Amino acid sequence: MILLLLQLQFCLSIAAAACIQKEREALLQFKNSFYKDPSHRLASWNNGTDCCNWKGVGCNQITGHVTIIDLRLDIDQVGFRIAPLYSNNSIHSSFLELKYLNYLDLSGNDFNYTQIPNFLGSMVELTYLNLSRTFFSNKISPHLGNLTKLETLDISFNLLETNGDVEWIPHLSSLKFLSLRGMDFSNTSSLMQVLNYLPLLVSLRLNYCNLQNIHFSSSSWLNYSSFLSRIQLLDLSSNKLNGQIPKAFQNMTSLKYLDLSNNQFNSIFEGGISTFIKNNFGLKVLDLSFNINLGGDVFGSRYGNQSTGCNLQVLNLGYTSFKTKIPDWLGKFKNMKSLDLEDSQIYGPIPASLGNLSSLEYLDLSRNALTGTIPTAFGRLLNLRKLYLQENGLMEVGHECFAQLEKLEELDISRNLLKGILTEFHFANLYQLHILSIGYNELLQLDMKSNWNPPFQLQVFDASSCIGCVRSEFPQWLQTQKRLVELWLSNTSLSISCIPTWFQPQNLTDLDLSHNKMAGPFFTTIVNQMPNLRRLFLNDNLINDSLLSPLCQLKNLDTLDLSNNWLSGIVQGCLLTSNLFALDLSSNNFSGTFPYSHGNDLSRIEVLYLRNNNFEGSMPIILKKSKFLETLDLKGNKFSGNIPTWIGDKLERLKILILRSNLFNGTIPSSICNLTDLQILDLAHNQFDGIVPSKLSNFNVMTRKDTDGFPAICRNGNLDHGVVCIDGGKYMVQSIKSSYFNYSMIRLTLMVSIDLSNNSLVGFIPSEITKLKRLIGLNLSHNNIIGIVPAEIGEMESLESLDLSFNQLSGPIPLSLSKLNSLGTLKLSHNNFSGNIPREGHLSTFNEASSFDNNSYLCGDPLPIKCVIENSSELPFNKIDNQDQDEDKWEKWLLYISIIVGFIVGFWGAVGSLILKKSWRYAYFKYGEEAYFKVHATIWRSIEMLKGMCISKRIW
Ligand SMILES: *[C@@H]1O[C@H](CO)[C@@H](O)[C@H](O)[C@H]1NC(C)=O
Ligand SMILES: *[C@@H]1O[C@H](CO)[C@@H](O)[C@H](O)[C@H]1NC(C)=O
Ligand SMILES: *[C@@H]1O[C@H](CO)[C@@H](O)[C@H](O)[C@H]1NC(C)=O
Ligand SMILES: *[C@@H]1O[C@H](CO)[C@@H](O)[C@H](O)[C@H]1NC(C)=O
C-alpha cells in the first residue's frame, strides 16, 4: 500500500510538467498589456515561477502547454464590476504563441473599444471563447469563422457591429452554445437562416439584438424545423418582437428554456400556455414577462384541463396585461419552483389549488387586483421561501396560512385591505423569516404577548401605516430581534418620548419613524443605540432636540430627513460630510448661516431641502463642490446676496432650483442658463433686478420633447427589499396644490416651470423664451418688464399657465396665443397692452375680465371697454392634438396613485417613479446581467454607448 502511494506520488510529480518558456514569455507580455489591475488579479504572474500555477492559467498535465486562460470577472449582485483589468490595446499578439489554448475567458475586462484581433481566428484549438462585456468594438472579425472546434462562443454585450456580415457563423460547425446578446441584428434579416446551419447548436441567446418580426417571418419558419426541434435553450428576450407569439414555437420538441420576455407581444397562439406546455413536455423554464400588452386567453384556460406540464419549474409571467383570473389548473405543476405573476393585471380570488404546488419556493402575485382570502392551502407550500402578495385587494388571512411554512424567508403582504388579527400562532414556525412586510393594511392588527419570543430573527420589518400593528408603542418583541437592518414604522401613531434602551440593533442601517407623534429629544439615544445608520427618517414628528451635532457621530449617514419638526438652532458643520446624499431640514426653525469651514464637504449630495426655516447669509458656499446636486430648495428663508455664478458653472446636474421667498438680490447671472437639465427654476419673491437672462434655450429639458421625469434618486435597499427613491418631486405636489397653477397631474413627470415673479426685473422678455416648448408654467408677474410679448409665444405649446401681470408690457396681445390649447391660466392685467383682445381659438375661452384689466389701451371682450373699430380678421391656427393622452392611461394612473400615496403616507416615495414605467423596472429588477448592461454601464463607463437606451437615473 505504502509503495503504491509512493509510486503514485512519483507519477504525479512527473506529470505536473512545468510550463514552456516561450508560453510564459507570451503570458508575461499579455500581462504587461494591461495598464491597470486594480485588484492585483495578475499578481501571481511572475517571471521565474511556473506559469501553470499562475492564477487563471491551466496547462496540459503531460505536455505542459497552456490550455486554459480564465480571467473571467463576474459582476457582483447589484451589477457592479469589481476591478476589471484594463488594457488600452486589444489582446496582445503574443497570444499566437499559445497554440494549444482551448479555453479562453476574458469576460468582464476592459479592452477600451478596440477590435477583436483577426489572429484569434488562427487559434484553432479553441473550444471555449468568452469575450462578453469586454468593450470590444467595431466590426466583428470574420476570421472567427476559422474556429471550427469552437463549442461555446459568447461575445455578448460589447459594441460589436456585424454590418450584415454573418457569413462566418455557419463555419463554426461544432458550436453548441452561442450568445450574441447586445449585438444589433436589425439589418441582418438572414440571421435565422445562418443559425439554422449550425448542426449542433442547442443554446442560443439573442437578447438585446434589435430583432423584429421580420427575422422570424412565418414562411421561413418551416425551413427551420431542424433548428426548432434541436434547440434546448432559446433566449429572445429584450427585442422588438410584436404581435402574436409565433406558432412555430409550439414545435420545439427539445425545448427546456424559453425566454421571450421584454418584447412587445400582445397575444399568444391558440391554446395558450396550457397547450404549449403540453406540446413541449420537457419545458422547464418559460418566461413571457415584460410583454406589457400581452393579454387575451393567455393561459388557454379552455384547454387547461389536459395540461400536464410536469417538468415546468419556472413560469414567469409578470408585467403583462392578462386581465384574467388565475386558472385552477396551475396547481397541477408538481415540479414548479417559481411562479411569478407580479403586475399582470390578474384579478379575483387566489385559487386554493396553488396549495398543491408542493415544490414551490418562490411565489409572487403582487401588484394585481386579487381579492378574497389568502388561502389556507398556502399552508401546504412547505418549500416556500419567498411569498409576495403585496399591493392587491386581499381582505383576509386564512387561518394557519403561513403557520407551517418553516422555510419561509420573505413575506410581504403589505398594501392590501387585510383585516383581522395576526397572533403569535401565525408566526409560530417561521424560523427562517427575515423579511416581514405587513404595512399599509390599516385594519390589520398584530396581537402579541409582551414577552413574545419570535422564532425568527428579522432583518427587515415594515409595518408602516399599520396602526394596529404597533399601537403607538415601540413593539416589545423587537427586543429579541438582534439582526434588524431596516425598520419601517412610519405613520403608526407612535407617540413615544424616548427610544427604549433595550433597542440596540447594531446592524440597523435604515430607520423610518416619520409621520408619528414622537416628542422630545431623540438624537443622542439614536446615535448611541444605532451607530450604523445610513438612512434616518424622523420627519413629521414633534422632535425638539436643540443640537444636531450628536448625529455627526453617525459615520455612515447618507440620508437624513428631519423636516416638519420643532427643531431650532444652528446647523453644525460636522453634519455636512461627503457621505451625505440627501438632507432635508425643511419646515423647522433652524437659523444662522449655513456653515462652511475647512473640512466640510457636501461633494456627493444630490438632494438638499432647507425650505421654510430662518437661515440667513449668502448662498451656502459649501455647495460649490456639489457637482451631483439635483434638487436645491431654499424657499422661505432669509438668504441674501447674489446668486453666485458657480451655481450655473459647477452644479451641472441641477434639475430643481428653488430660491423663492428669500432676500436674494443683484442680477440673475447668465451662467444659470448653463444648467441644461433644469426643470424648475423658481426665483420668485426676492429682490432681483437687472434683466431676464436671455440664453434660456439652453434649458434642454424645457426645449426637448421627451424628458426623464422627476429627478428621483434610487438606490437598492440593503437586502434587495425593493428600491428606495427619494423623490425630487416631493414638494412639487404641495406647491402645485396651493398655487394658482393648475397643472394637470399627468404632466407632473414632465413639469417644467420658470417663476421669476415679484422681483424688480427690467428689460424685455427675451424672444428665446419661445423655444421652451416643454415649459408648462411661466410667471414673470410683478416686475418692471417692458416691451412687447414675443409674437411667437404660440410656439410654447405646453404652456398651461402664463402670468405676465403687473409689468409695463405694451403693444398688442399676440394672436399666436390662441394656439396654446393647454393654457388654463392667463394673466395679462396691469400692463400697457393695447388694441383689441384676440378672441380666436383657445383665447376665446378666457372670459374673465381680470385676465386683462388695468391695461389702459386694451379693449373688447371680456373687458367692458368696446373697441372703436372691430377687427374681425380670423387667424388660421392649428389644432394641436394631444395624441399621447390616451396611450398610457394606465401608467398615468399609476403615476397619480404613487404620487398621492407617497404624499399622503409621507413614505419618501419608496414606490416612487419605479412603478411608473414597467420598462424601467425591467432594467432594475430583471436579471443582474441585463441590469448591469442597461444601468450600470453608465456609471463605470462613459454614456455615449447607451444614449437613447438607458435611464438617466442612477442606482448606487
Ligand atoms: C524572464 O526571465 C528570463 C530569464 O530567466 C529572461 O530571459 C526574460 O527576458 C524574462 N522575461 C521578462 C518578460 O521579464
Ligand atoms: C483608449 O483608446 C483611445 C483611442 O481610441 C485613446 O485615446 C485612449 O487614450 C485609450 N484609453 C486609455 C486609458 O488608454
Ligand atoms: C481563416 O481561414 C481563411 C481561409 O481558409 C484564411 O484565408 C485566413 O487567413 C484564416 N484566418 C486566420 C486568422 O488564420
Ligand atoms: C410542427 O411540425 C410538424 C411536423 O414536424 C408540422 O407538420 C407542423 O406544421 C408544425 N407546426 C407548426 C406550427 O409549425
UniProtKB/TrEMBL annotation:
Gene3D superfamilies: Ribonuclease Inhibitor. The keyword Oxidoreductase does not apply. Its main location: membrane. InterPro entries: Leu-rich_rpt, Leu-rich_rpt_typical-subtyp, LRR_dom_sf, LRR_N_plant-typ, LRR_R13L4/SHOC2-like, RLP23-like. Keywords: Cell membrane, Glycoprotein, Leucine-rich repeat, Membrane, Receptor, Repeat, Signal, Transmembrane, Transmembrane helix. The keyword Oxidoreductase does not apply. Residues 21-60 form the Leucine-rich repeat-containing N-terminal plant-type domain. The chain crosses the membrane at residues 893-916. It is found in: Cell membrane. It is a single-pass type I membrane protein. Residues 1-17 form the signal peptide. Residues 312-541 form the Disease resistance R13L4/SHOC-2-like LRR domain. One of its GO terms (cellular component) is plasma membrane. Belongs to the RLP family. This is Receptor-like protein EIX2. It comes from Cucumis melo (Muskmelon). The gene is LOC103504704.
